[in-house]
Write a structure and sequence with these properties.
Layout lengths: L2 E3 L10 H6 L22 H17 L17 E6 L5 H11 L4 E5 H11 L1 H8 L4 E5 L6 H16 L3 E6 L17 H8 L2 E6 L21 H6 L4 E6 H8 L7 H4 L5 E7 L5 H16 L3 E6 L8 H4 L4 H16 L3
Parallel strand pairs: 1-7, 2-5, 2-6, 3-4, 4-5, 7-8, 8-9
GO cellular component, one term: cytoplasm
Keywords: ATP-binding, Cell cycle, Cell division, Nucleotide-binding
Protein name: Cell division protein ZapE
């Protein structure tokens, strides 16, 4: 019989050393390389991105010289991959991380802000300084405080010789747009943008699913029995209990909420209409997806868990990415 627990019963604590140690690509990208990235011929920007990142990695590692007295070509200290969800940006980011020597870090934007929260600003700078590269996945600036902190942090790391690579669904000059008064922080946003070579990657979601499709659901009474077929370590929660519990845990600790689980079950899923719990659920979905934890649910299909108003707002791309991942995790096609 599988071990049945509840996510709502888990109370993870902050461990700064563990946060730093876990700054590496999710296990689903263990085999990611530039060579294993399958480009779509109908979107030439994908092949261009692979070739450019390989060139950049060579220069960043100290190569690229074309003669005894020639210097390596001048490049910016960072690269920024902009594109829709499911085009393989994280795959390329993980591939770049693997090619770089020395001490290096890979994490989501929220993990780096969590590191600042756990260690303090100077402590975070000390922990990351001296790295050959810092990779930031899902780069988002959702409030002015994050804008200023990340601007300062990136500036200090770059000044020390660290290279920066980031992915996002939002071009750097639009970071924060629709989410806070971006015009009041234009200088800070521009400072971040100026450090990156910006590369657009076009294409369709590689999962090849329409995010308007239906995620499968089962009856309330069938959630537990279905869940038992999905693995040895599973968690079953009533949806409202789960959502309430997420409010008591910092999103940086969500990785510990799903650690060791093969699958989770959510009974009574409903459409969320408040932004804060919806964004917390997005953060949990990202951690579930990273760990490839399957989902079994009842109630409203998970592709309808975010209201239409949310899908039309400033966080639209975040919600659409989460829906794509929810469909993947509920259909077993992640």
């Amino acid at each position: 019989m599988p071990t049945l627990t509840r996510i709502a019963d888990r109370q993870p604590t902050t461990d700064a050393a563990r946060i730093v140690a876990n700054l590496r690509p999710p296990r689903q990208f263990d085999g990611a390389t530039f060579e294993s990235y399958v480009t779509d011929p109908s979107h030439p920007s994908q092949q261009h991105a692979v070739e450019r990142m390989q060139e950049l990695a060579t220069v960043w590692r100290g190569g690229g010289r074309k003669g005894l007295f020639r210097k390596a070509p001048q490049v910016k200290p960072g690269i920024y991959l902009d594109g829709g969800f499911g085009v393989g940006k994280t795959h390329l980011l993980a591939s770049l991380w693997k090619t770089m020597p020395g001490r290096k870090h890979f994490g989501t934007f929220i993990e780096y802000t969590a590191l600042v929260g756990a260690l303090g600003y100077q402590g975070a700078v000390k922990a990351l300084s001296g790295s050959t590269i810092v990779c930031i996945d899902e780069f988002e600036l959702d409030d002015p405080g994050d804008t200023m902190v990340m601007t300062r942090l990136l500036g200090e790391l770059v000044a020390g010789g660290t290279k920066i690579a980031a992915t996002s669904n939002t071009p750097p000059n639009a970071l924060g747009d629709g989410r806070f008064a971006a015009k009041d922080f234009l200088r800070e946003i521009q400072a971040i943008s100026d450090r990156f070579e910006i590369m657009r990657i076009d294409g369709d979601d590689y999962r090849q699913r329409d995010v308007t499709g239906e995620a499968p659901v089962v009856d309330d009474d069938a959630v537990e029995s279905t869940l038992a077929e999905r693995g040895e370590s599973v968690a079953l929660d009533d949806f409202d209990d789960l959502v309430a519990h997420l409010a008591s845990v910092h999103p940086s600790r969500y990785v510990d909420l799903v650690s060791g689980l093969d699958a989770v079950g959510w009974r009574g899923v409903r459409t969320l209409t408040d932004q804060s719990p919806a964004l917390r659920l997005v953060a949990l979905v990202d951690r579930l997806y990273d760990a490839q934890v399957q989902i079994v649910s009842s109630g409203v299909p998970l592709n309808h868990v975010f209201s239409d108003d949310m899908l039309g707002g400033g966080y639209r791309k975040k919600y659409l990415r989460a829906i794509s991942r929810l469909i993947a995790l509920t259909t077993g096609q992640a």
